[in-house]
Amino acid sequence: MHRHEFLRKLHEVSKPRTYFEVGINDGRSLTLSRVPTVAVDPAFKVVKEVRCDLHMIRETSDDFFAREEPFEHLQGAKVDLAFIDGMHLFDFALRDFINAEPHLDWTSVVVLDDMMPRNIPEAARDRHTTAWTGDVYKVIPVLQRYRPDLRLAVVDTQPTGVVVVLGVNPTNTALADKYDEILETYAVPDPQQVPDVLLNRTIAMRPEELLEAPFWSSLVAAREDESTEFGPDELRATIDESLSLGSRTSLAGWQPEPQPAPADNAVSGEVATPEAARAVTATVPTPQSAGGISQRITRAAAGNPGLWKLGKGVVNRLPLGWRRSIRKHVYQARRTHV
Prior knowledge:
By secondary structure, the chain is α/β, with parallel strands linked by helices. It has helices at 3-14, 61-65, 90-100, 139-146, 174-177, 179-186, 196-199, 207-211, 215-224, 232-243, 274-281, 295-302, 305-315, 320-336, and strands at residues 19-22, 37-40, 54-57, 79-84, 104-113, 151-155, 162-166.
């Protein structure tokens, strides 16, 4: 079953009232939505007819989540179904999940694409193949290790598999708290190390097994009737029983073997003058100065595309809390820049 056919059927069984998508591309997955929808992509080119109440944002997901009210279009409603198919690097996909979860409810469903690369070259962080999954597959062991409360269904869809995440908790901060530790452990140079159970797909279930599971009716009923006694614990127990998750292979104990770091620690692909580099460095907070970020510097970055591009590369290397603070300041400055 192709991923878009799977997504179509998932819309049918999960009956979302709202939909969120990271990675619009040509809009094929957006055509499946019939509910209020928010979608983000820095370079989308929709070529399909879309039939939903849609707000599309042309920017990166990091910039989108830096907004004060990223889901204003949904008028206070939680996201019932989210499809994450953005940048094909595991740290980006993980960050999208971390940033999206506070806007979800325990009955929400999250789908992450490209979870089963077909070969090692396709899984490279530095793309050099036509078809490319990147190393987003690492989200599976990370979620299983750091968020055992979640329920993950690895699904054998074409071409490169998906993971469906259930039982989310909008108040859980374990991933954000451990984000820098996770990056240090899982972000390794190419060639990537891909578990055999992903390459040969023995870890995955058939799409029909998930789509026909009996828990969907209970999940939808609980979403529509908050007075029901069916809660998060009951949902997890029902999913475990329906999908026999306890007997399936877990990657919670897997992590890539450490590799020597590249000699050049410069931001890949970025060229800037020493003056620009010093200006960007001035935006980076130290432990002593993390309480305030220079508005003058962020406004300068907002009005200088080259500086803004370099700054994003630097900011992506900082601890998660600092990145969020800097992006929020720069986003606000860009909105007001003349």
